[in-house]
Amino acid sequence: CKVCPLTFFTKSEMQIHSKSHTEAKPHKCPHCSKSFANASYLAQHRSPLPALKPYHCSYCEKSFRQLSHL
């Protein structure tokens, strides 16, 4: 990503992510006040398993839902 330090395996993943840096966030959650630039990010937010974070950073000990966010 040219805006943040995230890296991606495919160009399409990077293109999807790059939308998160725009101010336009048309995908709104019907249950809370959050909105998202991408429909897939909204789907992840609405996932029935939001606490599931299988990817763990060995440096800072934070956990992530997606490998690309590690």
Automatic annotation (TrEMBL):
GO molecular function list: zinc ion binding
GO biological process assignments: regulation of gene expression
Cross-referenced InterPro entries: Zinc_finger, Znf_C2H2_sf, Znf_C2H2_type
Cellular component GO terms held in the UniProt record: nucleus
Entry keyword annotation includes Zinc: yes
C2H2-type domain residues: 1-26, 27-54
Keywords: Metal-binding, Repeat, Zinc, Zinc-finger
Keyword Repeat recorded: yes
Name of the protein in its database record: C2H2-type domain-containing protein
Species the sequence originates in: Spheniscus mendiculus (Galapagos penguin)
Organism ancestry: Eukaryota, Metazoa, Chordata, Craniata, Vertebrata
